[in-house]
Amino acid sequence: MTTPRDDLLADARREVLVMSTSGPAARAPLGAVRPNDHVHLGRGVSYRILVPDTARTAPALSRRLGTLALAGASVRTLPTVPTDALVLDRSLVVLPADRAISSSGVLAFRLPGVVTTTVELFDRLWPAATPLIEGGHDEELDQRQARLLELLTTGHTDESAAAELGVSVRTVRRMVADIMRRLGARSRFQAGVKAADRGWLLAEVG
Question: Locate the HTH luxR-type domain: which residues (predicted)?
Fold first, then answer.
């Protein structure tokens, strides 16, 4: 059975950010896992999910999160996640609400201030969180992404990097945006620094 939350998720085209305070049980109406997540991942929607460390020792939840991670989602844990929230395409935020206010248990906001504040909170938490699966999708770039980072950090423009990789400039910019999201970077320079710190560049250069 679909919910208003699932209907909103169906509109996601590029990115879903998830913050869930739930540990052993995914609490309705916002939880760490939703029925249609695999469908969205299959059509290319980027997922980043933050959950408490207690999710690692909750058999059912950790299994479901692990399956999402293997399907392409980036899942990380923190000792404590401060709030429950979904952010869709950095343009809409879904927050839990008292059922006296909303019968569905959620409220959706497109106010730029609400969206910006929620995204900034997520981006502050993400770099300090620990990947659920070490060495998985969350931890490594594919060969083309690593080559792109190497080109950009050695002074190539988007246009020259696109020519080198044999892709369009639009594809390069989409790849850069995805890398920055995965690294929790606010700029291309910061993305290069963080990638070097993780050894992502050295593997290609060396």
Answer: 134-199
DSSP string of 7-38, one letter each residue: HHHTT-SSEEEEE---SSS--SSS-S--TTHH
Give the list of residues 6+ apart from residue 37 with CB closer than 8 angstroms, or none.
16, 47, 68, 73
Distance between CA atoms of 128 and 142, rounded to whole angstroms? 23
Average pLDDT, the chain: 78
Q: In one letter, which amino acid is 56?
A: R
Pair 65, 132: CB distance under 8 Å = yes
Distance between start and end Cα atoms, the chain: 52
Q: Left (φ > 0), alpha (ψ -120 to 50) or beta: where does 6 sit?
A: alpha
Query: Whole-angstrom Cα distance, residue 139 to residue 146?
Result: 12
C-alpha to C-alpha distance for 160 and 108, rounded to whole angstroms:
41
- What pLDDT is stored for residue 202 in this prediction? 47
Rounded-to-integer distance, Cα 27 and Cα 4, Å: 15
